[in-house]
Specification:
By secondary structure, the chain is of the alpha/beta class. It is built from 23 helices and ten strands. The longest helix is centred in the C-terminal third of the chain and has 38 residues.
């Protein structure tokens, strides 16, 4: 850090009582210094980042940060609060607040400021000096690293302990890949130096990572993994003594972890190569409940399946728009293709689309298993998914096959095998046994009952009409709008997308209802800010302009800034409008083969004018409700400091 911070950007007596007010007070200093051009626009970007994940850290520290088009140069403002301000840290309010601002596109600058600051925050001497700083110039110098002020003598740095030859490598990573990733690295490096160990740390941060030298890994006497997300290429460390913990453990007790690793190495305790797998975003030390883990596994499968649905569904929808529904009977384009014939192009798109759809269930099953046990789950998962397709067990069969494959691999990995066999376990033994077991169970034991259930569900969806269809539309509409892109929204969307793997009239109606409801929340907020803008803050009115496009594109998350600022009024209103659109879409009999697209795929929707009417009526319903609820407060929503900051 050179001149990212000056004394003009330091407030040692910050009187703000909320995170939003603190951000505003520090941002005003950035504006005065000419480093931010639009205060409200910048605060909107800060608030949007804060909504993703709280920026409070243990030890009374808050680090709000963002990249913004309103920033002219990478900058850092610092505030010290005697009372403390809540930034969402688990151990209480923050007394030291660092506001980091970087221009849009300055990714490396943004991360370099954050990582440099994060490393400083592991130094108790730095924290103590910053808490005791008596003037802004001294605080700015401390943060820049210029050195301690001369009239504050510090203890001489202790001499480094001579290395005793113990070599370790470490990996640190956290969900955001910023603060804790680098704090853990710094803490481990300090502890290793004090213990006389040689250490090399790989920080798998949000800006990418520099891979450890393979020779350094091979020569290491032990491995220390401090992570809250999956360690990339973890197999590199197989067969070595390993300590595996969360990233915060490395920040708070690095010396203990290094001592534990040395004890493991002394006992000759090494990791099992086959066990060197972990779920994405779910390290082995995580203690999530089964329900949480199950949802993550299923969402992993759905997330990998959706691109196949999008590509295949849109191609098939375009094929029907160009060539009509009889295009399904066209001969293979490999045998006949007319370059100037529209029917040939329609047939080509339909056949490519159906080929993409053939992968849906195997991909779903394979990546559910991948979410459970990493790469060893891919073979049995995809084999089980392919068997599900062969016996017509469909989407349900894929779900079961994926979970079954993950469970089988987990069971195999628990078996202790001779050292001579460990090298071939991931490549030969696990794929062979797991694929055989899953294939047997799907073909002979579980597949037929699941296929019967799948056919019953398909027949029920195909026969949906009248009240039943409307009630289902209401339920799906409520689910799409209750958390605006969260887990419940994703469950409803996954249910609709799963139906596209074996499209029927009923499943196409469900897809249409889900997209109609998902478009409503952002469109309603956009309409409300247009009709009665005085009920919203300036930042919300700006967000309302973008919400028109987001809603029209079927991006429910466009309403999140409004829901975060006023959840008790916005979310019920959004749910009511979504239920209206979902119910009307089902009642009108609208169908949709495309899994996404919003108004851009309206020409591919059955009865498009009635579909637009359903979306419009749901939008108006939601907008009216939110205006009534906001107006019932009996006062105008003044664009106060806190409100403006919260609106983004």
């Amino acid at each position: 850090m050179t001149e990212e911070i000056t004394q003009d950007l330091v407030d040692l007596d910050l009187h703000a009582t909320t995170a939003e007010a603190a951000a505003r007070a520090l941002a005003e200093r950035l504006v005065s210094a000419g480093r931010v051009t639009d205060l409200d626009g910048f605060l909107t970007d800060v608030a949007a980042r804060e909504e993703q994940l709280p920026t409070g850290m243990e030890g009374g520290i808050g680090i709000p940060h963002c990249r913004s088009e309103h920033v002219t140069r990478p900058s850092l403002a610092f505030g010290r609060s005697a009372a403390g301000i809540d930034f969402g840290a688990p151990d209480g309010p923050a007394h030291l607040i660092f506001l980091i601002a970087a221009p849009t596109g300055a990714h490396s600058d943004h991360l370099s400021i954050l990582s440099a600051l994060a490393r400083k925050l592991t130094d108790p001497e730095f924290i103590s000096a910053l808490r005791a700083a008596s003037d802004p110039g001294r605080a700015a110098a401390l943060i820049r690293g210029d050195a301690f002020v001369e009239d504050e003598p510090s203890e001489p740095a202790p001499a480094a302990t001579e290395s005793d030859g113990f070599r370790l490598v470490a990996v640190t990573s956290c969900p955001t890949g910023i603060a804790h990733t680098y704090m853990a690295a710094e803490a481990l490096e300090r502890a290793a130096e004090a213990a006389g160990c040689e250490i090399a740390v790989e920080t798998q941060g949000s800006g990418g990572f520099q891979r450890l030298d393979p020779a350094r890994v091979a020569a290491a006497d032990g491995v220390l993994l401090a992570h809250d997300v999956e360690v990339r290429d973890r197999h590199r460390f197989a067969g070595k003594p390993t300590v595996d913990v969360g990233v915060k453990a490395a920040v708070s007790r690095a010396p203990e972890l290094i001592a534990e690793l040395r004890e493991k190495a002394a006992r000759g305790e090494t990791t099992h190569p086959a066990a060197e797998t972990t779920e994405p975003d779910e390290p082995q030390h995580a203690q999530d409940g089964f329900g949480t883990r199950l949802r993550k596994w299923l969402m992993t499968g759905v997330s990998y399946m959706v691109p196949f649905v999008a590509a295949g569904g849109l191609l098939m929808a375009l094929a029907f728009a160009i060539g009509g529904y009889e295009i399904t009977e066209a001969p293979s384009v490999a045998d006949h293709f007319g370059w100037t014939e529209a029917a040939s192009w329609a047939a080509l798109m339909h056949q490519i689309g159906t080929t993409a759809f053939d992968f849906l269930v195997p991909i779903l099953a394979g990546y559910i298993a991948y979410g459970m046990v990493d790469r060893p789950g891919l073979v049995p998962g995809m084999v089980g998914g392919a068997v599900a397709v062969a016996i017509e067990a469909g989407f349900l069969g894929g779900l079961v096959a994926g979970l079954l494959a993950g469970a089988v691999v987990m069971a195999i990995q628990r078996v202790r095998v001779p050292t001579t066999l460990r090298g071939i376990m991931p490549v030969v033994v696990i794929p062979l046994i797991s694929a055989a077991v899953v294939g047997f169970l799907m073909f002979v034991v579980l597949g037929k009952p699941i296929a019967v259930l799948q056919r019953a569900l398909t027949d029920w969806l195909s026969g949906l009409s009248g009240t039943n269809a409307v009630l289902l539309g209401i339920l799906l509409g409520l689910m799409m709008c209750v958390d605006l892109g969260g887990p419940v929204n994703k469950v409803a969307y996954a249910f609709a997308v799963g139906g596209l793997s074996e499209p029927t009239d009923g499943s196409l109606k469900i897809m249409a209802a889900v997209m109609a409801a998902g478009m409503v929340p952002p469109l309603a907020m956009a309409l409300a800010t247009t009709v009665r803008g005085r009920l919203f803050t300036r930042a919300e009115r700006e967000n309302g302009k973008a919400a028109w496009v987001l809603g029209a594109s079927f991006v429910s998350e466009g309403a999140i800034p409004f829901a975060a600022a006023d959840p008790l009024r916005v979310i019920p209103s959004a749910m009511a409008g979504g239920a209206v659109s979902g119910a009307l879409s089902m009642a009108f009999g609208n169908t949709l083969r495309a899994p996404h697209g919003g108004v851009f795929v309206v020409p591919l929707i059955g009865q498009p004018f009635l579909y637009l009417l359903a979306v419009a009526l749901g939008t108006v319903t939601s907008a009216i409700l939110v205006l009534v609820l906001k107006g019932a407060r009996g006062r105008r929503a003044e664009p106060s400091n806190d409100a403006v900051a919260a609106g983004g």
